[in-house]
Design goal:
The chain is of the alpha+beta class. Helices cover 31% and strands 24% of the residues. It has a single domain, classed as 2-Layer Sandwich (60s Ribosomal Protein L30, Chain: A).
Length: 153
């Protein structure tokens, strides 16, 4: 087993199947030695486990868990173009969007769900730059969306 596989197993995680696009895009593209994933929603078995605004219908803790699901879906997309996550040498950037109630200001804590998961999976190579943005609404009324940029060899 590889280090990435060992870390996933230790965390009790399995890279899911790629989430099919919900519009006209591809889940991930490669340019040079970078993989750019499309924004990933927290689909589990083809469905969103929660919908609505964070700070209203969805708690910050629920949204943090959903951000981790988004990160796993991003890894699934990356794996399809790389063949193996062992090729990842660095998580370069994470961009997270949080559908926020107007009074909610905890977007960084929500996107920590994705950042912490990537750190646990990739170790030091998982340390990355990041943006966490509050938005009025996301596709399909998803509470969170995450995109990832990965470097690979």
């Amino acid at each position: 087993m590889s280090q990435v596989d060992d870390n996933l197993a230790r965390l009790g995680l399995v890279v899911p199947s790629v989430v099919p696009p919900v519009a006209a895009y591809t889940p991930a593209v490669v340019t040079g030695n970078l993989v750019f994933t499309s924004g990933q929603l927290p689909f589990v078995d083809g469905a969103l486990p929660a919908t609505g605004k964070v700070g209203a219908a969805v708690t910050a803790d629920q949204a943090k868990d959903l951000a981790a699901v988004c990160a796993m879906n991003a890894l699934a997309a990356a794996k399809t173009v790389l063949g193996s996550l062992d090729r990842v040498t660095r998580v370069v950037k994470v961009v997270g969007f949080v559908a926020s109630d107007p009074t909610f200001t905890g977007q960084p804590g929500v996107i920590n769900g994705a950042s912490e998961l990537l750190g646990e999976v990739f170790g030091d190579a998982g340390v990355h730059a990041r943006s966490a943005v509050g938005v009025a609404v996301l596709p399909l009324d998803s509470p969170v969306e995450v995109e990832v940029i990965l470097e690979f060899a």
